[in-house]
Amino acid sequence: MKIEFVVNGESCAAEVDSAMRLIDLLREELRLTSVKEGCGAGECGACTVLVDGEPVCSCLVPAVQARGRDILTVEGLAKDGQLSVLQQAFLDCDAVQCGFCTAGMILTAHALLMKKDNPTDEDIRTALAGNICRCTGYVPIERAVRAAADRIRAARS
Amino acid sequence: MAGLMTPNSLDELAACLAIGNVRVVAGGTDWFVRDVESFGEEDTLIDLSGVAELRGVTLQGGGLRIGAGETMTSLAGSPLVRTHAACLAEAAEHVGSWQIRNRATLGGNLAGGSPAADTPPALMALDATAEILSLRGTRSCSVEGIVAQGRAALAPDEVLVAFTIPLPEGRISAFGKVGSRKEVSIARLNLAASLRRSGGSLSNARVVVGTLGSAGRLCPGAGEILIGSLDLEERRRAFCSALVAVVEAAIPGRSTLPYKRSAILALGEDVFDALMRTSDEGRGRS
Protein backbone atom coordinates (compact mmCIF):
# COMPACT_ATOMS: atom_id res chain seq x y z
CA MET A 1 0.00 0.00 0.00
CA LYS A 2 1.28 3.45 -0.90
CA ILE A 3 0.98 6.09 1.80
CA GLU A 4 1.80 9.78 1.88
CA PHE A 5 3.12 11.70 4.86
CA VAL A 6 5.47 14.50 5.87
CA VAL A 7 8.91 13.91 7.37
CA ASN A 8 10.97 16.81 8.67
CA GLY A 9 8.85 19.24 6.70
CA GLU A 10 9.07 17.41 3.37
CA SER A 11 6.27 15.50 1.68
CA CYS A 12 7.05 11.83 1.21
CA ALA A 13 5.41 8.74 -0.24
CA ALA A 14 6.34 5.12 0.40
CA GLU A 15 5.14 1.57 -0.09
CA VAL A 16 4.33 -0.08 3.22
CA ASP A 17 3.01 -3.50 4.21
CA SER A 18 1.52 -4.96 7.37
CA ALA A 19 4.89 -6.14 8.70
CA MET A 20 6.65 -2.79 8.40
CA ARG A 21 7.23 -0.67 11.49
CA LEU A 22 7.64 3.10 11.46
CA ILE A 23 11.31 2.70 12.44
CA ASP A 24 11.86 0.46 9.39
CA LEU A 25 10.22 3.03 7.14
CA LEU A 26 12.37 5.84 8.53
CA ARG A 27 15.70 4.00 8.66
CA GLU A 28 15.54 1.60 5.74
CA GLU A 29 13.41 3.48 3.23
CA LEU A 30 14.24 7.10 4.06
CA ARG A 31 17.75 6.50 5.49
CA LEU A 32 17.03 8.59 8.57
CA THR A 33 19.53 6.71 10.71
CA SER A 34 19.32 9.01 13.73
CA VAL A 35 16.38 6.78 14.70
CA LYS A 36 17.94 4.01 16.79
CA GLU A 37 16.54 0.62 17.63
CA GLY A 38 17.35 -0.39 21.20
CA CYS A 39 14.96 -2.88 22.74
CA GLY A 40 12.46 -3.14 19.90
CA ALA A 41 9.69 -3.45 22.49
CA GLY A 42 8.78 0.09 23.52
CA GLU A 43 10.82 0.01 26.71
CA CYS A 44 13.92 2.10 26.04
CA GLY A 45 12.77 5.08 23.98
CA ALA A 46 15.87 5.13 21.73
CA CYS A 47 13.59 4.95 18.66
CA THR A 48 11.46 7.93 19.74
CA VAL A 49 10.22 10.18 16.95
CA LEU A 50 7.46 12.79 17.01
CA VAL A 51 4.20 12.09 15.20
CA ASP A 52 2.12 15.26 14.94
CA GLY A 53 4.30 16.67 17.73
CA GLU A 54 3.80 13.75 20.11
CA PRO A 55 6.62 11.38 21.07
CA VAL A 56 6.08 7.74 20.12
CA CYS A 57 8.22 4.61 20.01
CA SER A 58 8.72 4.09 16.29
CA CYS A 59 9.51 0.40 16.91
CA LEU A 60 5.87 -0.13 17.97
CA VAL A 61 4.02 1.97 15.42
CA PRO A 62 2.86 0.17 12.27
CA ALA A 63 4.35 2.10 9.33
CA VAL A 64 0.90 2.43 7.79
CA GLN A 65 -0.08 4.68 10.69
CA ALA A 66 2.25 7.34 9.31
CA ARG A 67 -0.46 7.91 6.68
CA GLY A 68 -1.21 11.64 6.54
CA ARG A 69 0.94 12.39 9.60
CA ASP A 70 3.72 14.88 10.24
CA ILE A 71 6.85 13.14 11.51
CA LEU A 72 9.90 14.74 13.07
CA THR A 73 13.29 13.07 13.56
CA VAL A 74 16.49 14.66 14.83
CA GLU A 75 17.53 15.28 11.22
CA GLY A 76 14.72 17.86 11.12
CA LEU A 77 15.87 19.91 14.11
CA ALA A 78 18.99 21.69 12.84
CA LYS A 79 18.31 24.53 10.43
CA ASP A 80 20.89 25.78 7.89
CA GLY A 81 23.68 23.89 9.63
CA GLN A 82 22.77 25.47 12.97
CA LEU A 83 21.92 23.11 15.84
CA SER A 84 18.65 23.72 17.66
CA VAL A 85 18.87 25.35 21.09
CA LEU A 86 18.14 21.99 22.68
CA GLN A 87 20.80 20.14 20.68
CA GLN A 88 23.38 22.81 21.60
CA ALA A 89 22.37 22.55 25.27
CA PHE A 90 22.97 18.79 25.18
CA LEU A 91 26.51 19.46 23.93
CA ASP A 92 27.16 22.27 26.41
CA CYS A 93 25.92 20.25 29.39
CA ASP A 94 27.80 17.06 28.48
CA ALA A 95 24.48 15.28 28.20
CA VAL A 96 25.84 12.90 25.54
CA GLN A 97 28.18 10.00 26.12
CA CYS A 98 27.77 6.99 23.82
CA GLY A 99 24.99 8.85 22.03
CA PHE A 100 22.69 5.91 21.35
CA CYS A 101 19.81 7.30 23.42
CA THR A 102 20.48 10.92 22.46
CA ALA A 103 18.23 11.30 19.43
CA GLY A 104 15.23 9.87 21.26
CA MET A 105 16.05 11.84 24.38
CA ILE A 106 16.24 15.11 22.43
CA LEU A 107 12.98 14.49 20.59
CA THR A 108 11.05 13.72 23.77
CA ALA A 109 12.53 16.83 25.40
CA HIS A 110 11.71 18.84 22.25
CA ALA A 111 8.07 17.76 22.50
CA LEU A 112 8.01 18.74 26.17
CA LEU A 113 9.43 22.20 25.46
CA MET A 114 6.88 22.75 22.68
CA LYS A 115 4.14 22.21 25.29
CA LYS A 116 5.76 23.80 28.35
CA ASP A 117 8.36 26.52 27.98
CA ASN A 118 9.17 26.48 31.70
CA PRO A 119 8.83 22.86 32.82
CA THR A 120 9.42 21.88 36.43
CA ASP A 121 12.10 19.32 37.27
CA GLU A 122 9.26 16.86 37.83
CA ASP A 123 7.84 17.64 34.37
CA ILE A 124 11.22 16.92 32.79
CA ARG A 125 11.68 13.66 34.69
CA THR A 126 8.17 12.44 33.94
CA ALA A 127 8.49 13.32 30.26
CA LEU A 128 11.83 11.52 29.93
CA ALA A 129 10.82 8.48 32.00
CA GLY A 130 10.44 6.44 28.82
CA ASN A 131 13.94 7.23 27.55
CA ILE A 132 16.62 5.06 29.08
CA CYS A 133 20.27 6.17 29.23
CA ARG A 134 22.94 3.73 30.40
CA CYS A 135 25.81 6.26 30.47
CA THR A 136 25.04 9.63 31.94
CA GLY A 137 23.02 8.96 35.06
CA TYR A 138 20.42 11.40 33.68
CA VAL A 139 21.58 14.46 35.67
CA PRO A 140 23.35 16.18 32.73
CA ILE A 141 20.36 15.40 30.50
CA GLU A 142 17.93 17.01 32.92
CA ARG A 143 20.31 19.97 33.19
CA ALA A 144 20.45 20.30 29.40
CA VAL A 145 16.66 20.38 29.08
CA ARG A 146 16.46 23.00 31.82
CA ALA A 147 19.21 25.07 30.13
CA ALA A 148 17.44 24.86 26.78
CA ALA A 149 14.15 25.97 28.32
CA ASP A 150 15.87 28.94 29.96
CA ARG A 151 17.67 29.92 26.74
CA ILE A 152 14.51 29.69 24.63
CA ARG A 153 12.58 31.88 27.07
CA ALA A 154 15.45 34.37 27.35
CA ALA A 155 15.69 34.64 23.56
CA ARG A 156 11.98 35.42 23.39
CA SER A 157 11.96 38.18 25.99
CA MET B 1 1.24 -11.97 1.23
CA ALA B 2 -0.70 -10.64 4.19
CA GLY B 3 -3.19 -7.89 3.44
CA LEU B 4 -3.46 -4.40 4.86
CA MET B 5 -6.53 -2.16 5.02
CA THR B 6 -7.08 1.37 6.28
CA PRO B 7 -10.77 2.14 6.80
CA ASN B 8 -11.70 5.75 7.54
CA SER B 9 -15.18 5.15 8.96
CA LEU B 10 -17.22 2.49 10.72
CA ASP B 11 -18.96 1.67 7.44
CA GLU B 12 -15.65 1.10 5.72
CA LEU B 13 -14.49 -0.90 8.75
CA ALA B 14 -17.53 -3.18 8.47
CA ALA B 15 -16.68 -3.80 4.81
CA CYS B 16 -13.11 -4.70 5.80
CA LEU B 17 -14.33 -7.14 8.46
CA ALA B 18 -16.36 -8.93 5.79
CA ILE B 19 -13.30 -10.24 3.96
CA GLY B 20 -12.53 -12.68 6.79
CA ASN B 21 -9.26 -13.75 8.50
CA VAL B 22 -8.77 -10.24 9.80
CA ARG B 23 -6.86 -8.80 12.73
CA VAL B 24 -7.21 -5.25 13.94
CA VAL B 25 -4.59 -2.89 15.32
CA ALA B 26 -5.27 0.40 17.07
CA GLY B 27 -2.38 2.01 18.98
CA GLY B 28 -0.08 -0.88 18.14
CA THR B 29 1.75 -0.99 21.48
CA ASP B 30 1.17 -4.76 21.80
CA TRP B 31 1.07 -5.63 18.11
CA PHE B 32 4.72 -6.03 17.13
CA VAL B 33 5.76 -7.12 20.62
CA ARG B 34 3.24 -9.92 21.07
CA ASP B 35 0.37 -10.29 18.61
CA VAL B 36 2.21 -10.25 15.29
CA GLU B 37 3.54 -13.77 15.89
CA SER B 38 0.09 -15.24 15.38
CA PHE B 39 -0.53 -13.18 12.21
CA GLY B 40 -0.41 -15.40 9.13
CA GLU B 41 0.39 -14.80 5.48
CA GLU B 42 -3.27 -15.31 4.60
CA ASP B 43 -4.48 -12.80 7.18
CA THR B 44 -5.37 -9.15 6.69
CA LEU B 45 -4.41 -6.40 9.11
CA ILE B 46 -6.94 -3.62 9.59
CA ASP B 47 -5.51 -0.35 10.88
CA LEU B 48 -8.15 1.29 13.08
CA SER B 49 -6.27 4.55 13.56
CA GLY B 50 -8.12 6.32 10.73
CA VAL B 51 -11.64 5.46 11.91
CA ALA B 52 -12.99 8.80 13.14
CA GLU B 53 -15.95 7.29 15.03
CA LEU B 54 -13.57 5.47 17.39
CA ARG B 55 -12.52 8.80 18.87
CA GLY B 56 -14.31 11.34 21.02
CA VAL B 57 -15.38 11.92 24.62
CA THR B 58 -18.94 13.20 24.95
CA LEU B 59 -21.78 13.46 27.42
CA GLN B 60 -24.69 11.53 25.94
CA GLY B 61 -28.04 10.58 27.43
CA GLY B 62 -26.94 10.82 31.04
CA GLY B 63 -23.70 8.92 30.44
CA LEU B 64 -20.12 9.60 29.43
CA ARG B 65 -19.30 8.05 26.06
CA ILE B 66 -15.64 7.44 25.32
CA GLY B 67 -14.41 6.22 21.94
CA ALA B 68 -12.39 3.02 22.23
CA GLY B 69 -9.63 4.63 20.16
CA GLU B 70 -9.00 7.41 22.68
CA THR B 71 -5.41 7.28 23.89
CA MET B 72 -4.18 7.22 27.47
CA THR B 73 -2.79 10.74 26.94
CA SER B 74 -6.14 12.05 25.74
CA LEU B 75 -8.05 10.39 28.60
CA ALA B 76 -5.65 11.74 31.22
CA GLY B 77 -5.97 15.24 29.77
CA SER B 78 -9.73 15.23 29.16
CA PRO B 79 -11.64 17.60 31.47
CA LEU B 80 -14.79 15.47 30.99
CA VAL B 81 -13.00 12.28 32.02
CA ARG B 82 -11.30 13.98 34.95
CA THR B 83 -14.61 15.38 36.17
CA HIS B 84 -16.88 12.38 35.64
CA ALA B 85 -14.51 9.40 35.70
CA ALA B 86 -11.58 10.45 37.86
CA CYS B 87 -10.31 6.91 38.48
CA LEU B 88 -10.09 6.32 34.73
CA ALA B 89 -8.09 9.51 34.17
CA GLU B 90 -5.76 8.54 37.03
CA ALA B 91 -5.29 5.03 35.64
CA ALA B 92 -4.57 6.33 32.14
CA GLU B 93 -2.11 8.92 33.45
CA HIS B 94 0.22 6.24 34.83
CA VAL B 95 0.20 3.70 32.02
CA GLY B 96 3.70 3.11 30.61
CA SER B 97 5.75 6.04 29.38
CA TRP B 98 4.67 9.22 27.58
CA GLN B 99 5.46 7.51 24.27
CA ILE B 100 3.23 4.55 25.16
CA ARG B 101 0.41 6.72 26.48
CA ASN B 102 0.40 8.62 23.19
CA ARG B 103 -0.44 5.43 21.28
CA ALA B 104 -2.10 2.99 23.69
CA THR B 105 -5.88 3.08 23.44
CA LEU B 106 -8.64 2.42 25.93
CA GLY B 107 -10.06 -0.32 23.73
CA GLY B 108 -6.69 -1.96 23.26
CA ASN B 109 -5.97 -1.93 26.97
CA LEU B 110 -9.09 -4.04 27.52
CA ALA B 111 -8.94 -6.17 24.36
CA GLY B 112 -5.30 -7.05 25.02
CA GLY B 113 -6.45 -9.13 27.97
CA SER B 114 -3.47 -8.37 30.19
CA PRO B 115 -4.23 -9.10 33.86
CA ALA B 116 -2.01 -6.14 34.74
CA ALA B 117 -3.86 -3.62 32.56
CA ASP B 118 -4.68 -0.40 34.41
CA THR B 119 -7.84 0.94 32.78
CA PRO B 120 -10.09 -2.17 32.97
CA PRO B 121 -10.40 -2.01 36.79
CA ALA B 122 -11.30 1.68 36.49
CA LEU B 123 -13.93 0.97 33.82
CA MET B 124 -15.34 -1.82 35.99
CA ALA B 125 -15.48 0.41 39.06
CA LEU B 126 -17.44 2.94 36.97
CA ASP B 127 -19.80 0.18 35.75
CA ALA B 128 -18.90 0.84 32.12
CA THR B 129 -20.51 -0.92 29.18
CA ALA B 130 -18.69 -1.63 25.93
CA GLU B 131 -20.17 -1.26 22.46
CA ILE B 132 -18.82 -3.96 20.15
CA LEU B 133 -19.06 -3.98 16.35
CA SER B 134 -18.89 -7.04 14.10
CA LEU B 135 -20.53 -8.29 10.93
CA ARG B 136 -23.29 -9.67 13.14
CA GLY B 137 -24.17 -6.14 14.19
CA THR B 138 -23.51 -4.16 17.32
CA ARG B 139 -23.72 -5.71 20.76
CA SER B 140 -23.24 -4.36 24.26
CA CYS B 141 -21.42 -6.06 27.06
CA SER B 142 -20.41 -4.86 30.50
CA VAL B 143 -16.68 -4.41 30.96
CA GLU B 144 -17.10 -6.68 33.97
CA GLY B 145 -18.37 -9.41 31.61
CA ILE B 146 -15.51 -8.89 29.15
CA VAL B 147 -12.89 -9.04 31.89
CA ALA B 148 -14.45 -12.22 33.29
CA GLN B 149 -14.09 -13.95 29.93
CA GLY B 150 -10.50 -12.79 29.38
CA ARG B 151 -9.12 -12.73 25.83
CA ALA B 152 -11.90 -15.04 24.66
CA ALA B 153 -14.43 -12.26 25.25
CA LEU B 154 -13.93 -10.77 21.81
CA ALA B 155 -13.91 -12.69 18.54
CA PRO B 156 -11.11 -11.79 16.09
CA ASP B 157 -13.59 -9.91 13.92
CA GLU B 158 -15.09 -7.92 16.79
CA VAL B 159 -14.02 -4.33 17.39
CA LEU B 160 -14.56 -2.28 20.52
CA VAL B 161 -16.17 0.96 19.38
CA ALA B 162 -16.91 2.89 22.57
CA PHE B 163 -17.52 2.70 26.29
CA THR B 164 -20.45 4.24 28.10
CA ILE B 165 -20.14 5.14 31.74
CA PRO B 166 -23.36 5.87 33.62
CA LEU B 167 -23.19 9.09 35.61
CA PRO B 168 -25.24 8.82 38.79
CA GLU B 169 -25.35 12.08 40.71
CA GLY B 170 -22.64 12.55 43.30
CA ARG B 171 -20.36 9.75 42.22
CA ILE B 172 -16.67 9.99 43.06
CA SER B 173 -13.88 7.57 42.27
CA ALA B 174 -10.18 6.94 42.82
CA PHE B 175 -7.44 4.71 41.45
CA GLY B 176 -4.13 3.48 42.84
CA LYS B 177 -1.34 1.28 41.56
CA VAL B 178 1.72 -0.43 42.99
CA GLY B 179 4.54 -1.33 40.63
CA SER B 180 8.23 -2.01 40.81
CA ARG B 181 9.19 1.60 40.08
CA LYS B 182 7.68 5.06 40.05
CA GLU B 183 7.32 5.58 36.30
CA VAL B 184 6.92 3.25 33.30
CA SER B 185 5.76 0.58 35.67
CA ILE B 186 3.63 -2.48 35.06
CA ALA B 187 1.18 -2.88 37.93
CA ARG B 188 1.86 -5.54 40.53
CA LEU B 189 -1.50 -4.57 41.96
CA ASN B 190 -4.02 -1.92 41.06
CA LEU B 191 -7.22 -0.81 42.73
CA ALA B 192 -10.13 1.29 41.53
CA ALA B 193 -13.14 2.29 43.60
CA SER B 194 -16.23 4.41 43.13
CA LEU B 195 -19.15 5.38 45.33
CA ARG B 196 -22.01 7.86 45.49
CA ARG B 197 -22.36 10.53 48.09
CA SER B 198 -25.66 12.18 48.74
CA GLY B 199 -25.87 14.62 51.60
CA GLY B 200 -24.08 12.84 54.43
CA SER B 201 -24.60 9.31 53.18
CA LEU B 202 -22.54 7.09 50.91
CA SER B 203 -23.91 4.37 48.64
CA ASN B 204 -23.36 2.26 45.51
CA ALA B 205 -19.74 1.34 46.15
CA ARG B 206 -17.86 -0.61 43.49
CA VAL B 207 -14.37 -1.74 44.44
CA VAL B 208 -12.22 -3.55 41.89
CA VAL B 209 -8.78 -5.07 42.43
CA GLY B 210 -6.71 -5.77 39.33
CA THR B 211 -3.66 -7.88 38.62
CA LEU B 212 -4.86 -10.83 40.66
CA GLY B 213 -4.85 -13.36 37.84
CA SER B 214 -7.43 -11.29 35.98
CA ALA B 215 -7.68 -7.62 35.02
CA GLY B 216 -10.41 -6.95 37.54
CA ARG B 217 -12.08 -8.61 40.46
CA LEU B 218 -15.13 -6.97 41.99
CA CYS B 219 -14.99 -6.93 45.79
CA PRO B 220 -18.54 -6.49 47.14
CA GLY B 221 -17.43 -7.04 50.74
CA ALA B 222 -14.90 -4.22 50.62
CA GLY B 223 -17.52 -2.06 48.94
CA GLU B 224 -20.03 -2.59 51.72
CA ILE B 225 -17.45 -1.62 54.33
CA LEU B 226 -16.50 1.49 52.34
CA ILE B 227 -20.02 2.91 52.63
CA GLY B 228 -20.79 1.35 56.02
CA SER B 229 -21.37 2.98 59.37
CA LEU B 230 -18.02 2.40 61.09
CA ASP B 231 -16.08 5.48 62.06
CA LEU B 232 -13.38 6.61 59.67
CA GLU B 233 -10.36 4.87 61.23
CA GLU B 234 -12.18 1.60 61.79
CA ARG B 235 -13.62 1.74 58.32
CA ARG B 236 -10.18 2.24 56.75
CA ARG B 237 -8.81 -0.75 58.70
CA ALA B 238 -11.79 -2.96 57.87
CA PHE B 239 -11.65 -1.93 54.20
CA CYS B 240 -7.99 -2.90 53.96
CA SER B 241 -8.61 -6.18 55.82
CA ALA B 242 -11.36 -7.05 53.37
CA LEU B 243 -8.97 -6.40 50.48
CA VAL B 244 -6.33 -8.65 52.07
CA ALA B 245 -8.96 -11.39 52.24
CA VAL B 246 -9.67 -10.88 48.52
CA VAL B 247 -5.97 -11.24 47.69
CA GLU B 248 -5.64 -14.38 49.82
CA ALA B 249 -8.66 -15.99 48.19
CA ALA B 250 -7.58 -15.03 44.67
CA ILE B 251 -4.00 -16.27 44.58
CA PRO B 252 -3.57 -18.94 47.30
CA GLY B 253 -0.12 -20.53 47.28
CA ARG B 254 1.33 -18.10 44.71
CA SER B 255 4.87 -16.90 45.32
CA THR B 256 3.62 -13.32 45.02
CA LEU B 257 1.02 -13.72 47.78
CA PRO B 258 3.12 -12.41 50.72
CA TYR B 259 4.08 -9.31 48.74
CA LYS B 260 0.59 -8.63 47.45
CA ARG B 261 -0.98 -9.20 50.87
CA SER B 262 1.25 -6.47 52.25
CA ALA B 263 1.01 -4.17 49.22
CA ILE B 264 -2.80 -4.18 49.16
CA LEU B 265 -2.82 -2.70 52.66
CA ALA B 266 -0.95 0.39 51.51
CA LEU B 267 -2.88 0.61 48.26
CA GLY B 268 -6.18 0.23 50.13
CA GLU B 269 -5.27 3.08 52.47
CA ASP B 270 -4.28 5.34 49.58
CA VAL B 271 -7.48 4.78 47.65
CA PHE B 272 -9.65 4.98 50.78
CA ASP B 273 -8.05 8.28 51.78
CA ALA B 274 -8.35 9.69 48.26
CA LEU B 275 -12.07 8.84 48.21
CA MET B 276 -12.71 10.30 51.64
CA ARG B 277 -10.81 13.48 50.81
CA THR B 278 -12.96 13.90 47.75
CA SER B 279 -16.20 13.10 49.49
CA ASP B 280 -15.75 15.49 52.45
CA GLU B 281 -16.71 12.42 54.46
CA GLY B 282 -13.38 12.51 56.28
CA ARG B 283 -13.96 15.92 57.77
CA GLY B 284 -17.52 15.06 58.70
CA ARG B 285 -16.69 11.93 60.66
CA SER B 286 -13.15 12.31 61.98
Would you kindly provide a written description of the structure presented here, covering whatever features stand out?
Chain A is of the alpha+beta class and 157 residues long. Chain A has two domains: 2-76, Ubiquitin-like (UB roll); 85-156, Orthogonal Bundle (DNA polymerase, domain 1), CATH 1.10.150.120. Helix content of chain A is 35%, strand content 15%. In chain A, helix 2 crosses helix 5. The longest helix of chain A is centred in the last third of the chain and has 18 residues, at 139-156. The radius of gyration of chain A is 15 Å and the shape is globular. Chain B is of the alpha+beta class and 286 residues long. Chain B has three domains: 3-46; 55-166, Uridine Diphospho-n-acetylenolpyruvylglucosamine Reductase, domain 3; 171-285, CO dehydrogenase flavoprotein, C-terminal domain (Enolase-like, domain 1). Chain B has helices at residues 10-17, 72-77, 79-84, 86-93, 98-101, 106-111, 119-125, 143-149, 220-226, 232-250, 257-279, 281-285; strands at residues 3-5, 22-25, 44-47, 57-60, 63-67, 129-134, 137-142, 159-166, 171-179, 187-198, 201-210, 217-218. In chain B, the strands form three sheets. Chain B has a five-stranded antiparallel β-sheet with strand order 4-5-8-6-7. Chain B has a four-stranded antiparallel β-sheet with strand order 9-10-11-12, with helices on both faces. Chain B has a three-stranded parallel β-sheet with strand order 1-3-2, with helices on one face. In chain B, a hairpin with a 2-residue loop joins strand 4 and strand 5 (63-67). In chain B, helix 9 (220-226) runs antiparallel to helix 10 and helix 10 packs antiparallel against helix 11. The longest helix of chain B is centred in the C-terminal third of the chain and has 23 residues, at 257-279. Chain B starts with a strand and ends with a helix.
